[in-house]
Amino acid sequence: MPKQIILAAHFPGVNNTTVWSDPASGSQIDFASFVHLARTAERGLFDFFFLAEGLRLREQRGRIHDLDVVGRPDTLTVLAALAAVTTHLGLAGTLNATFREPYELARQLATLDHLSGGRAAWNVVTTSDAFTGENFRRGGFLDRSLRYERAAEFVRTARELWESWAVDAVAGDRDTGRYLATAEPGAFTYHGDQFDITGHFTVPRSPQLHPVILQAGDSPDGREFAAASADAIFSRHGTLDAGQEFYRDVKSRLARHGRDPDDLKIIPGVTVVLGDTDAEAHEKAHHIRRQQVSPQTALLLLEQLWNRDLSGYDPEGPLPATDPDISAEAISRGRAGMYPDPVATARQWRTLAEEKGLGIRDLIIEVTGRQSFIGTPQQVAEQMNHFVQSDAADGFILVPHLTPGGLDEFVDEVVPLLQERGVFRTEYTGTTLREHLGLGAARPVAPVAALR
């Protein structure tokens, strides 16, 4: 049997991947936009709907970065509202483990899992960015070396809280008037390096026991964290070869954590551009990318690597001859850790620009694009299927350039072709997100006391 393809829908904010100025683009905050994209995804039998998170408006050179504002309404509020207007679609939200507390977030996610009938998912992210942390207590600062340590302990703590209610803790015996079957429902005690909490969890065991855990880190620490703790990883590898290397690496880490390869799904973010012919689709994709990366956006994105004011450069001209300034304070705030070695990356970009004869704008278009599937519906269906069957991914998170109608064409024209190939469902056969993803039941964790 061929592998079944996982599909998810990403709701984009206002940034350099969206074309908010297009006449077909709608509101990024109106609830009707969220409903349209979610219902389109559910009509297409997608596995889940995905929301990113922005905790502070980004700045560049001391000004709000107008061309890349990742701001949106509160994630959990939107997902809870969508639970009422969908019936099968998973509901995944990015929620930062650096600035929240396990008891609070575990309650919120368990509640969403109950409200949705077992469709909740949490994309765990971390940050060592003190700029974002200024919005939170103690400045929210966490040393970079501790962020995954905290995240791993956060997930373990949340899992213990979710498991604190026994399966049969609620008796609900009307004859005897006894509601609880135990005198200590939801009792927990957690003592660790990051958290020290004791009490009773207020939410009974939810349909999935553990909401599905997603993770988006690509560093060695991020990969190890995903192998130990996540159910799926949101990767960014764009080519078939890079996807296969990432797939092999992450899957190979699972055994030392007592897990099987199918316990972790690899789901890169991708874009799709369709046309009646291959030439039309590529022409359309070229136009979209030049809308996404305007001349001003190209310079701003280049500044994030060079860490210099490049406003005087010609966006269609050559790259700066100077190297990035790694000694100065970062001019971009709220976007941390994009380029671990700026000087080496700049050299790679110069080489690419020379080989292909690219100016600044065309280079930025080249190096910032996601994996794209471009062509006729038949070509795109074949490309996506080849990617999955070749073990470069288990599925895809589709990132449309238009909100909210950016998935309509894909659902109408590509999904039926995937179904004809026998690699995508023709109906939902389960009720929970874990069932959609083929993950099986959540495995209870051992209490921390038993591990020491």
TrEMBL record:
Top-level division of the source organism's lineage: Bacteria
Residue span(s) of domain Luciferase-like: 24-390
UniProt-recorded Gene Ontology molecular function terms: monooxygenase activity; oxidoreductase activity, acting on paired donors, with incorporation or reduction of molecular oxygen
Family matches, as InterPro entries: Diverse_substr_monoxygenases (IPR051260), Luciferase-like_dom (IPR011251), Luciferase-like_sf (IPR036661), NTA_MOA (IPR016215)
Keywords, sorted A to Z: Flavoprotein, FMN, Monooxygenase, Oxidoreductase
Pfam families cross-referenced by the UniProt entry: Bac_luciferase
Binding, FMN: T94, Y148, S219
Record bears the keyword S-adenosyl-L-methionine: no
Family statement: Belongs to the NtaA/SnaA/DszA monooxygenase family.
Entry-linked NCBIfam families: FMN_nitrolo (TIGR03860)
PANTHER family: ALKANESULFONATE MONOOXYGENASE-RELATED, C2H2 FINGER DOMAIN TRANSCRIPTION FACTOR (EUROFUNG)-RELATED
Protein name, UniProt field: FMN-dependent oxidoreductase, nitrilotriacetate monooxygenase family
Biological classification of the source: Bacteria, Bacillati, Actinomycetota, Actinomycetes, Micromonosporales
